[in-house]
Specification:
The protein is mainly alpha-helical. The protein is built from 19 helices and two strands. The radius of gyration is 20 Å and the shape is globular. The two termini are about 25 Å apart.
Length: about 400
Amino acid sequence: MTASLTEPLATTRPAPAAIRFDRREFAGAFGDLGTDLPLLVGVVVATGMDATAAFVTFGVLQILSGLAYRLPMPVQPLKAMAAIAIAGKLAPPLLAAGGLIVGLVMLVLANSGALEWIARTVPKAVVRGIQVGLGLQLANLALNKFMPADGPRGWVLAAVALVIVLALRANRRVPAALVVLSLGFVYAAVLWPVDMALPFGFRLPSLPTRWPTGDEFLRATLLLALPQLALSLGNSVLATKQVVGDLFPAREPLSVRRIGTTYALMNLFAAPMGGLPVCHGSGGVAGHYAFGARTGGSAVIYGIFLLMAGFFLVGSPAAFQRLFPGPILGTLLLVEAVTVLLLVRDQLGDKRAFTLALGCGVTAAFAPYGYAWALVVGTVVWYVTMGRNTRASVGTSH
């Protein structure tokens, strides 16, 4: 779909470059919009949290992540927590409690050596399986929720957007994502409902008015933190480390301790500011990379966009979401999904490892608590079937 989706992973790359703000970084900045925007708007609408605070906090964290890592290392909403909050219409203090709990737990894991032990123990095939599961979920969301939006007209828009991506996949002067987003804006403007006000106007964020109670911390532990931590260990930490190593092999490898620490600090910052619980994610890195980003500039640009959206555009979250038609979000999401799914190709040389990766991927994508089962059961199956003499290669695989 883009040049990076079909070309082999590079074996040599230039040394870490300074942060850039060119058009490719600008195009890559919106590579994860299809994942983030529905969750951001969905949580704001379902929970009643302050939209400006949510978007501004999310934007600040994008900027800090881009500056800290100097890589296309965006920040994403915690998916399990967001889904539970949307389904249950949870109160904002309960969501804040969940973010504080996972932040504290991850801080302990990152600085006690536990994350390093997990990284040494979990085999690369299982990490690839977790990435396959994420790719399947993203593709399913794109094809079944976003692309069908607006019926046949939406499918036509999605088809045109995909043709644009394919046609511009190797074009370094005209980034595909910018053209696709422009197409979406034109589509939204032409079909804007006459009875819906435009989402423009200046607003300042409001800080939370109430701290979570002890009962809410207990409920958040069971309802939000436990389901999220399994997904976070697999995708936010291990798979993110792996995908950064895959796409930027010439750069100094990221440590799971560093990823876990920034994950923790972001959540400890976001909750008191009225923001969503957040993480890093392999899909986010792959999405920015797929549309051209190669430095932290894409995350900084994305953060500035979210800040501006928070201050000027999200007074009406539903109207704001109409600016980004579902078929356009679905196209971006599908490109991200394919980018993640193709990472498993390095397991093709070992039939047993490839089979295990696919099994873990299907489990992660479709089973209840699938990421937890894939992480634990997949690791056990690896050692039982491959033998413990494989352990030496596990520690250096990701």
